[in-house]
Amino acid sequence: MDKPVGPTSHDVVIRVRRALHMKAVGHTGTLDPFASGLLVILLGRATRLAQFVERHDKTYRATAKLGVRTTTDDLTGEIISLVPPLRDAETGPGGEVPSRRAVEATLRGFLGPQKQRPPAFSARKIGGERSYRLARRGVTLELPESDVTVHSLELMEFRFPELVFQTRVSAGTYVRALARDIGEVLGTGAHLTALRREAIGSLRIEQAVSLEVLSTETPILTPLSVLGHLPRIELSEAQVTDVGHGRAAQIQPEFTSSGSVAGVGAGDRLIAVGRVEDKLFRPEVVLEPAES
């Protein structure tokens, strides 16, 4: 789905349930109400694939406003601080507008593996409770840092106080926090004012449909299409039966894999996701149970 600005990710799920007359509907990779873009909706038994989709890298186009810090690191929060008026300058210390060269150098500094402090208003749990609920009650939070990776980060536009960048990040990375930290390095502070998700793994926003055209006639992708990153093993009909019953299936000894594997039947049907151990494909999530 191409989520518009405004509704929550759960709102989109409700719309899909109504439009397709289905109960088993879920989403992966929550988008905040102010954000738009690609939201993967899983239907029926495919809801079991959420854990695999969420591991994908994600690509975003984001707009940050320099000079203003907020409680949420985005435009929905209360203003914490404003920097004094800045003057134009190519380079130089505080009190001057950062140059494009300085902004580009700062972005390059965020490439690669790093520690990131999640926003206080986030879905991370502290003592079993979502941090945004604690923050709303005025509880002061210092969330533990997470290991994230910024694979790419490119400046698209810069006209102070706004900068637009495109980034591809690992799962669990907060672009709000990235914008905040960019502002801190520049010495101006910053918060996110717009965010659009353009890709999740190999899935692109160009493949998405809008809520306005959603109907029972809307084409639905196959479950296998969201698992293109996984190695696949072709299963015979006998193996499909075994796997469909949750039993391990004997496979060719030359096939090896240390992670999750997609077990595929005739016609590119995703039968199960599992692991290969001791020359056996052991199903962990079965999409096509065998008939009794």
Describe this entry's structure for a reader.
The protein contains 6 helices and 19 strands. A hairpin with a 2-residue loop joins strand 13 (190-200) and strand 14. It has 3 domains: 2-56 and 202-219, no CATH class; 61-195, Pseudouridine synthase, CATH 3.30.2350; 230-286, PUA domain (Archaeosine Trna-guanine Transglycosylase, Chain: A, domain 4, Roll), CATH 2.30.130.10. It is an alpha+beta fold. 17% of the residues lie in helices and 34% in strands. The strands form 5 sheets. Strands 1, 3, 5, 8, 11, 12, 13 and 14 form an 8-stranded mixed sheet that branches. Strands 15-17-18-19-16 form a 5-stranded mixed sheet. A two-stranded antiparallel ribbon has the order 2-4. Mean pLDDT is 88; it is low at 89-94. It is elongated.
In a nutshell, what does this entry contain?
The chain is an alpha+beta fold. Helices cover 17% and strands 34% of the residues. It has three domains: 73 residues, no CATH class; 135 residues, Pseudouridine synthase (2-Layer Sandwich), CATH 3.30.2350; 57 residues, PUA domain (Archaeosine Trna-guanine Transglycosylase, Chain: A, domain 4), CATH 2.30.130.10.
